[in-house]
Amino acid sequence: MSRSTLRGQALAAARSAPPASAPAAPAKKKAGAGKNPASATAKAPGEIRIIGGLWKRTRLPVAQRPGLRPTPDRVRETLFNWLGQDLTGWRCLDAFAGTGALGLEAASRGAAAVQLVESDAALVEQLNTLQQRLEARAVRVQRGDGIAALRQAAPGSLDLVLIDPPFDGNLFESALQAAGKAVAASGFVYLEAPVAWTDEGLAASGLVVYRHLKAGAVHAHLLRPVGAAGAPADAR
């Protein structure tokens, strides 16, 4: 066979051979790879946490309900610093319980009896679920009107009354007057409001300002009955 014939066959074979494979494209990095795994355990936006005591760091769900405004962590921490942290044996009533954060903080710190009063049926169901999950025997959940519950309490029977009503309502004066009668002479009333209250504004309730804190749009007050030890407003 001549060289020209061999060369022709080689060229034909080269034309019919499959093309060489292209180099593989580099693998794409998976979404999320390299991120800090701790971010997966971050607190969900619809949650708050108990600050201290037996159930410290326990997460509480925050439902999307009209007017529901959980007390900020900083304010709750300050409040219980004011109260001395240990509430062993205290009798408490949270008149507008909402998420239950304030009342459950009190129970977590040893309160003997905590009454959570809430008018919203969905929130009451949520509070009952929390009470059962925590096995919080000192906590009693009641669906109803917080001011009516305060009026039904025996005079001077409560060590701590928690008042945090919807800011757009007109419940403050009635709640404060009822709280002033229900709280013990040595007890405390916590008031959360959109404006600062003065001793003059509180006169009808028989309460005076003991401590005050402003955090953003929230004014947090710790009140005491007139004549209680340490009650003068200059203690702020």
Question: Can you offer a commentary on this structure?
Answer:
- This protein is of the alpha/beta class.
- Helix content is 29%, strand content 23%.
- Helix 5 packs parallel to helix 6.
- The radius of gyration is 32 Å and the shape is globular.
Set out the fold topology.
Elements: H1 3-16, E1 47-49, E2 59-61, H2 73-83, E3 91-94, H3 101-108, E4 113-118, H4 121-134, E5 139-143, H5 146-152, E6 158-163, H6 172-182, E7 183-193, H7 199-202, E8 207-215, E9 218-225
Tag the structure with descriptive keywords:
236 residues; alpha/beta; 7 helices; 9 strands; disordered N terminus
Give a concise summary.
The protein is an alpha/beta fold and 236 residues long. It has helices at residues 3-16, 73-83, 101-108, 121-134, 146-152, 172-182, 199-202; strands spanning 47-49, 59-61, 91-94, 113-118, 139-143, 158-163, 183-193, 207-215, 218-225.
For the residues shown, what is the average pLDDT?
A: 82
- Main beta-sheet annotation: 7 strands, mixed
The helix/strand series, from N terminus to C terminus, equals: HEEHEHEHEHEHEHEE
Give the termini separation: 114 Å
